[in-house]
Amino acid sequence: MGRVGGMSHRSNNSRTEKLPAYVVILAGGRGTRFWPRSRLRSPKQLLNIIGDSTMLQQTAERLSPLFAPNQLFVVTNEEQAAQVRSQLPRVPRAQIISEPIGRNTAAAIGLAAIHLQHVQRDARGAAHRDALMAVLPADQYIARAAKYRSLVSAALQVASSAGQMVVLGIPPTRADTGFGYIECTRNAKRRNAGKIATAAQIFLVRRFKEKPPLAVARRYVATGRYFWNAGMFFWRASTFLENLRRFLPKTFAALEELSVTIGTPRYSRTLAVIYPRLENISVDYAILEPATHLPGEPTVQMVPAEIGWSDIGSWEAVYELLARASHGEREMSGAGNSANVVAGPHYTLDANGNFLWSPRKFVATVGVDNLIVVETEDALLICPRERAQDVGKIVKWLEAQKRRDLL
Fold first, then answer.
1. Which domains are seen in the chain, by residue range?
2. Which of 107, 323, 366, 395 could covalently link to 32 via disulfide, CB atoms 3.0 to 4.6 Å apart?
3. pLDDT averaged over consecutive 10-residue blocks of the chain (407 residues)?
């Protein structure tokens, strides 16, 4: 599969122009549910949670058949920027963008969009500032990488039409209360038939729903019309910024002010003043959700993505992935004793279903089941696997206690 050099779109005077395509990787999260390994300067996406390389490196490598390093932007924060640069040395330094303070995904994507337009202006002149954007998280696991890349290409093709916004939707495998949901029309639609050659199914999005209670999640899954929202978005930079102007005008105006300072000595000072004033809201609810209510032709679409996806949201999710990969579905389905997943020297006796991460110390377990044990140089986590989602509460307690040495 060749790299995405650009996608054709037809302009107002009927000339066909190729828009270059870029990836924006969002890598600014803290990963608090992966404490004690995940810390402020080395969060989940910068760790080798699954495999030998870090999750950020795996994300970039997964996309490398489609995008060259100079087609990647990374949005991170000041504490993590040096690590990001070290892990992705081939990405241009100016395309690793630091937020001075977290302001959620709408602001982060807007910041990336104005930097992308600046790069385009320098490369092609003021008349050629537009480009396609694939906005992707840095910390997800995808088993079917080739299928994923084909869907990324298809989504970019749809997004090459002005005004169109596309999201990948994960077909739900269970009623899960930890994900947001995308409700789609019942029947697949072929947008721009005859103009865009893509074999992917495309659905019109009806609305986005926040994380639901279990009973509601079960109803969603039963209808067949709901998909998990994995936070993977595609649009033209101009489309995103126009919607930002429409739905978050103050944020748009502030970023417009910031954009003229990019590449000048004034940029850092202006960023530090402007960025904390931006609205703190996710792109789903700031832009995509209200866009589904606009009159006229629908502009928000979804491509179903059955790609072996996991958000790897907790140590429990890591256990499930590694146990399934190492021991097969039988041991994960309740047939016999559950597998232990262990990193480091160990001995287990009458112990089942445990996740033991201690690469330096010998770990012996006797008669314990379904535990998570994670050891670092200065901390030790022990909890039942079913309580893995509560690990983030430890970080909140440490923050309250001002234990920065453990954060």
1. 7-310 (3.90.550.10), 315-406 (no CATH)
2. 395
3. 60 58 93 92 92 95 97 95 96 96 96 93 67 96 96 95 95 91 73 49 91 92 94 97 97 96 96 96 94 91 95 92 72 57 93 94 95 95 94 95 94
